[in-house]
Design brief:
Blueprint (H helix, E strand, L loop, with lengths): L6 H10 L7 E2 H8 L5 H11 L10 E2 L16 H8 L4 E2 L2 E2 L2 H4 L3 H4 L7
Parallel strand pairs: 1-2
Antiparallel strand pairs: 3-4
Helix pairs in contact: 1-3, 2-3
The structure holds a DNA duplex (13 and 13 nucleotides).
Length: 115
Amino acid sequence: MEDSNNFFSKVYVVVKQIPYGRVTSYGAVAKYLGAARSARMVGWAMNASHSIEDVPAHRVVNKQGLLTGKHHFGGTNLMQQLLESEGVVVIDNQIQNLDMYLWDPWKELGTPQDL
DNA sequence: ATTCTGACGTGGG
DNA sequence: CCCCACGCCAGAA
């Protein structure tokens, strides 16, 4: 648990930096961490984060802006409700104006030097 | 130990 | 435009 000072921990750090009403993609986070081709692990980390820390997993979607992991949130449309609650327009598990809500780690955090 | 799957992404046909 | 396969790594059967 506390030994998750690896890829998982990195993912949590980045995801936790996502501001309110913002979203990012698994691939973006993965690439930011240097594992551009391990986007799957990001999603896997989210699943683990469920029992570790308060990681806003609902702010992490696939590159299409589709709420692929909404099924893992417990409820059926809980993820969508959370996003809409933050001002994000979500229709049929699909984020509208994704380009407007997309949060780029490089743009906000800069280079992954602290990681 | 082996096999498959998985909250993805990209590329090829 | 749609379908399929590969890569990546970790965990479960």
